[in-house]
Amino acid sequence: MSIWIGKETRLVVQGITGREGAFHSRQMMEYGTNVVAGVTPGKGGQTFEGKVPVFNTVAEAVAETQANCSVIYVPPAMAAGAIQEAADAGLALVVCITEGVPVLDMTFVMPYIVERGVRLIGPNCPGLITPGESKVGIIPGSICTPGPVGLVSRSGTLTYEVVHHLTAAGLGQSTCVGIGGDPIVGTNFIDAIAAFNADPKTEAIVLLGEIGGTAEQEAAEYIRAHVKKPVCGFVAGQTAPKGRRMGHAGAIISGSSGTADEKFQAFEAANIGIMRRPADVVSLLKARLK
Amino acid sequence: MNLHEYQARDLLKAAGVPMFDGDVASTPTEAEAIARRLGGTVVVKAQVHVGGRGKAGGVKLARNPAEALECASQILGMSIKGLVVNKVLVVPAADIATESYLGLILDRATQKPVFMVSDAGGIDIEEVAAKTPEKITKLAIDPRSGLLPHQALKLALALYQDWDQVKAATKILTQVYKVFMANGCSLTEINPLVTTPDGRVLALDAKIIIDDNELDRRPDLAVLRDESGEEPSEVAARRANLTFIKLDGNVGCVVNGAGLAMATMDLVKYHGGEPANFLDIGGSSNPEKVINALKIITADPAVKVILFNIFGGITRTDDVANGIVAATKQFKVDVPIVIRLTGTNEVEAFRILESVGMSAMSDMDAAVAKAVELAKGAA
């Protein structure tokens, strides 16, 4: 097992003929992901790389290929519509890589997909990978190796850095999930941590947060109450400049300044191992996995 | 993107939100003319993107047009927290009975626009929220149905008892919601929303932040950006498609990805140094980006060492190496460069650097420690 994606994943790529979509589709296929279809309106009937059929709509792609997961590489202004199209086509898992999606668009998308029981990961995320089985998104496959550590992160390259340390130390990963750094994302830390907690293959969890908001504090509270597996966590932005803030409203709404200190304190209270730097992940996990 | 107070006023005014008359001036003479037109005592307010402008001397009271000219000539051109004031807003010094708070924000937790109102408005609103949160009324709005009449009424009743003022507030709430949705805002705030002794409800100060992700599809909003009011190096970076924030330290950082960039700054501090900047070159590996990044960082005289931290995924480390080589051929870099490259095409990247007598490291901690040591030696 693992979470959300694996050998059973049949992937449709929305935007497969675009520059980004084509590049990453090739990478995913090389890794072994079962890419069964692509979608680009107006290019239905073509074939990508000589083997993947391209359709005009997601619904056609699903009907013809039994795709069960979508990944989106379309321009930002079209991303909301692409997510909704995937939801209407009956896909239960939608991963949106696109960066720069207007946040107001997401306020309309979220209730739409929740009503249809869809799990969205992203937008503005690197996607996810179950090493040795399937990769959906842009996480470099070469740095990952199968194993017992579940990782969830708000960042992209910081995830790679930590995974690199894990792999070098012989600590493989069950699944790595990048949930994205935008204000409104489909999947939050708690969703991923609950899934890792329920996954028998995951023996330890790594949480990589950033300053801003209260998602890390809420995750810590969830872990304190529900998770027995060892967890360690990092918060990027301990030295970020203060004063980049949203009028008074940002502080009023969250009751929090969203600083790294506040988040680390919440980690400590939940007995989460504190990573002061990315490299600490190895010693913390080795001590806790014994 | 932050709007200036006068720009926020313009958007709200166009939607019908009542406010005191007033206008923006770029010269003392213009300020004098506005004060003459308004008559009586006026307030001259610096239009600059920092908080605490009052305490810094950027807000002054003028009893007549001559004083308005005097105040404007003091404020225009002054520097508040490093930013030069190019415009002042001139408004009447209002006679105020009560001060309330009205904010609408894109909320991460509810994933909806959320109204927050309080009859205890003014500059201490955050303290009010922290100490007496029951004085803040919050309401999440479903964007698919918009602000419904009974919701506007509930919020207005939290602000006023007088029915005429309640009616005026429901109208203002509806107008604020329209401005928020029509302009892709992440924040629209009126603080304070005041009542006058004769019972009118007006917006006295306004703040609007527009979601940067809207600007590509909304050129009408993008033109509102005032680059003269920003740190010049940050403007240059944005034009080069880089995300850059200037800081006070001496270790210049060039990193791919925001999370790794922040973690790199944290690690500089961990090893006893101070980062000079946050700089994210993003996911693409265009060598031109590396050249622009080096130009921006070397323009800061405080920088004693430049640290590259690149984890190649989509970014090809050989492209970054080519960018570094091209940049150092184009212009002279007087400070040492420490390079950490790992990931896609790293063998080729190391070879490119070695061919011109440069070297790179593979480990982030070791590279940061070395950069900090070099910065200390140079300081």
Provide a concise account of the structure shown.
The complex is a heterodimer of chains A (290) and B (379). Helices cover 37% and strands 22% of the residues of chain A.
Structural descriptors:
heterodimer; A: 290 residues; Rossmann fold; 2 domains; 7-stranded mixed β-sheet; 10 helices; B: 379 residues; alpha+beta
Query: Termini of chain A, distance in Å?
Result: 22 Å
Structural class of chain B: alpha+beta
Helical residues, percent of chain A: 25-40%
Count of distinct structural domains of chain B: 3
Give the name of the CATH superfamily of the largest domain in chain A.
Answer: Succinyl-CoA synthetase domains
Distance between the termini of chain B: 36 Å
> What is the makeup of the main sheet of chain B?
6 strands, antiparallel
- How do the SSEs of chain A run, as a string of H and E? EHEEEHEHEHEEEEHEHEHEHHEH
Query: Outline of chain A, from the CA principal axes?
Result: globular
Looking at the overall shape, the CATH architecture of the largest domain in chain A is: 3-Layer(aba) Sandwich
Note the overall shape of chain B.
elongated
What is the CATH domain class of the largest domain in chain A?
Alpha Beta
Task: Give an overview of the whole structure.
The complex is a heterodimer of chains A (290) and B (379). Chain A has helices at 19-31, 58-65, 76-88, 103-115, 157-168, 189-198, 215-226, 249-254, 260-269, 280-289, and strands spanning 11-14, 35-39, 47-48, 52-55, 69-72, 93-96, 119-121, 127-130, 134-137, 146-153, 173-178, 204-210, 231-236, 273-274. Chain A is an alpha/beta fold and 290 residues long. Chain A folds into 2 domains: 11-121, NAD(P)-binding Rossmann-like Domain (Rossmann fold, 3-Layer(aba) Sandwich); 127-289, Succinyl-CoA synthetase domains (Rossmann fold), CATH 3.40.50.261. In chain A, the strands form 2 sheets. Chain A has a 7-stranded mixed sheet with strand order 3-4-2-1-5-6-7, sandwiched between helices. In chain A, strands 9-8-11-10-12-13-14 form a 7-stranded mixed sheet, sandwiched between helices. Chain B has 3 domains: 21-92, ATP-grasp fold, A domain (Dna Ligase, domain 1), CATH 3.30.1490; 98-222, ATP-grasp fold, B domain (D-amino Acid Aminotransferase, Chain A, domain 1), CATH 3.30.470; 232-378, Succinyl-CoA synthetase domains (Rossmann fold), CATH 3.40.50.261. Chain B has helices at residues 5-14, 28-38, 65-75, 125-131, 149-159, 163-182, 219-222, 232-239, 258-270, 287-298, 317-330, 346-355, 364-378, and strands spanning 23-25, 42-46, 59-62, 79-80, 83-84, 88-92, 98-107, 112-118, 137-140, 185-195, 201-203, 206-210, 243-246, 251-255, 277-280, 305-312, 337-343. The interface between A and B is large, with 61 and 68 residues.
